[in-house]
Structure formats: structure tokens, C-alpha cells
Amino acid sequence: MKTNDPGRLFTQARNGDRASLARILSLIERGSREGEELSRLSFAASSNSFTVGITGAPGSGKSTLTSALVEQIRQGGEEVAVLAIDPSSPFSGGAILGDRVRMQDHALDPGVYIRSMATRGHLGGLSVAVPEASRALGAVGFTNVIIETVGVGQVEVEIAEEADTTVVVVNPGWGDAVQANKAGLMEIADIFVINKADRGGVRETRRDLEMMLDMTNLGSYRPPIIETIAQEKKGVKEVLAAMRRHHEFAITSGVAATRRKARLEKELNRILQAAIAKQVMDRLASDEFIKERAEMANGSIDPRSLARLVLGELGIVSPLWPS
Ligand SMILES: Nc1nc2c(ncn2[C@@H]2O[C@H](COP(=O)(O)OP(=O)(O)OP(=O)(O)O)[C@@H](O)[C@H]2O)c(=O)[nH]1
Ligand SMILES: [Mg+2]
């Protein structure tokens, strides 16, 4: 029987019921009331899951690498969940279908759970829904959670950052392809993977990355650069080893705890900002302000003054408006 009762869903999912898990993730994705309760339950549940963000330019081989990593993790006997994020489209588009095809190898393995996610009205969007979903996966028992996201924009980078360890996938000759977001990717990478190492230009790409790392203030940890041919599963073992090494480093150095704290602060921030913005916009759109909006249109009240009116109504004092 289908239930939306958070407590029951949670218990059933922890007992291995995949349908309940799917329901949980849908409720979280949708930002429903039940989703909120499920997030609370997940947060409170103990979990020793290790989350890895895999990001990089479109088509760089993230899904192929993920699939190979899943296989590698399964060989070690651990369970693994994959969240494939599709920030661009609220619908299951072609990219996700492609991911599904690449993940087919694992379709029959009960130790692997694969799920694509898009934003569906969650307050705070994907950058809140994804960590909530990832915690839910950890709470129901997955020791490994891989989050795949296309590293093209700020939101995607933020999502990749939500993980304990972030892997940035580049290709030989990447410089031209992702020029725009190079700095952003450099900042979040704990591990660099040069995938498609069967192509020319690997040495130049490695040199390029090393140079950028040299110019970055790194502290005691320097992100390793690993070459892979994901299609042939070459170098994948090394990537997994580097992931575990980084995680180990992060825990013993205290980096993991610091990051976790910062992540939670950011998450709280996003929720509050989204909630307040929604409340304010709803009030502004209400009949109460029809007259004022018309006045703004005809030039008799300016946007800032109208904003002050709405904020005043809601009792919000904005630091932008010194009184
Ligand atoms: N030559 C070569 N091709 C590869 C390698 N790894 C993946 N590919 C191919 O690159 C293409 C894109 O691979 P995906 O794994 O879908 O890349 P992705 O980064 O997940 O793509 P999006 O999710 O669409 O951004 C596919 O045709 C793969 O078969 C590799 O090591 N060498
Ligand atoms: Mg993909």
C-alpha cells in the first residue's frame, strides 16, 4: 500500500524497501511538508556515509566514470547510491536518459541505487534538495553516495561542494571548453581527473593544472591529478583510492568538520532566503498592493519605496534600508 507517512516510509526504506526510498526522495524533491519531516528524520539518524561530488563540463565522462566507480565500490562489497542532478531542466531530458543507459550495468544489483533529480518547487532549489536527498540516502544505509552534476554554473558548483570529497573531471584540452568556470572548478576540486586520456594533449592539460595548483594557496593538501579512460575502466581504481585518501585526510585534519559546519550554515541561509523571498513576493502579488503596483507603473512611487512598504507590512526590517 502506498503511504506518505514519513515515519513509516523511513522505517521501510531503512529495511531496504526501494519503493519507499523512491517516495522519500520524491517528497524531498518536491519540498513537501512530508519532505521536511523526512529531512528531519534523516538528519537525526546516524549515518556513516561518504558523499562524493563528481562535476565537470558536459560530456566530459562523468557518468561513465561514475558507473565504473560504482562497479569498483561494489567489488569492495559496499553499497552505493548515485544522484544524477539535472539542474537545467525540470523534466527528465535526454541527458538523464543517457545516464540511465550508462548505468544499466547496475540495474539488477540491489546494492546500487540510482536516481536522477531535478528541482520541483523545493524551497531553496536544488542546492537545498540535493543535500537533503543525500542525507536521506545515507540515513537509509548507503555508505557511499555519489552526486553527479554538470559543472557549468554557480548552482552546479554549489551542489558539487555539498559532498565530502569533490572530483572535477576534465578532458585533454579542457582549457578552451570551460574557460568561463575554470576558477570556480579549481576552487572546489579535491581531486582532478583527466578523463579521455586516450586522446592527445594529456601532458599539456596536466601541466596546465599543476601550474594552476602552484598558484593556489593550498595548505597541507594538494589535489592529485589522475588520468583515466573511463570507457575502458582504466585509472578508476586510482580515483577511488584518491577519494578515500582525501576523505581520510579531511577527517583527521578537521577539514571535514569545518566544511560540514559551513555547508549547514549555507543550507540554512538558502532556506531562509528562499522562504523570506517567497513570503515577500506573495504579499506583493496580493490584492493589497494592486494600487501601489499601478502607481509604480505610472511613475508615482519608486521601487525602493514600494519595497519598503511591503517589508514594513511584514515586519521585516532590512539592513539595506537604514531607518
Ligand atoms: N574517448 C573516450 N571517450 C569517453 C571516455 N569516457 C567517456 N567517454 C565518452 O564520452 C561521452 C560522454 O560520456 P558521459 O559519461 O555521458 O559524460 P557526462 O560527463 O556524464 O555527460 P553529461 O552528463 O551529459 O554532462 C560518451 O560517448 C562516452 O562514451 C574516455 O575515457 N575516452
Ligand atoms: Mg552524465
Explain the layout of strands and helices.
Blueprint lengths: L5 H9 L3 H13 L2 H12 L5 E7 L5 H14 L4 E6 L8 H9 L9 E6 L8 H14 L4 E7 L3 H8 L3 E6 L3 H4 L4 H7 L2 E5 L6 H13 L10 E4 L7 H18 L1 H31 L4 H8 L5 H11 L10
The site of guanosine-5'-triphosphate has 19 residues, from helix 4 and helix 5.
The set of bound ligands, ions and cofactors reads: guanosine-5'-triphosphate, magnesium ion
How do the helices and strands follow one another from N- to C-terminus?
A: HHHEHEHEHEHEHHEHEHHHH
CATH topology of the largest domain: Rossmann fold
- In the CATH classification, which architecture of the largest domain applies? 3-Layer(aba) Sandwich
Structure notes:
The protein is an alpha/beta fold. It folds into 2 domains: 1-45, no CATH class; 46-256, P-loop containing nucleotide triphosphate hydrolases (Rossmann fold). Helix content is 53%, strand content 13%. It contains 14 helices and 7 strands. It has helices at 6-14, 18-30, 33-44, 62-75, 94-102, 126-139, 154-161, 174-177, 182-188, 202-214, 236-253, 255-285, 290-297, 303-313, and strands spanning 50-56, 80-85, 112-117, 144-150, 165-170, 191-195, 225-228. The protein has a 7-stranded parallel β-sheet, sandwiched between helices. Strand 2, helix 5 (94-102) and strand 3 form a beta-alpha-beta unit. Helix 2 crosses helix 3 (33-44), helix 2 packs antiparallel against helix 6 and helix 4 packs across helix 11 (236-253).
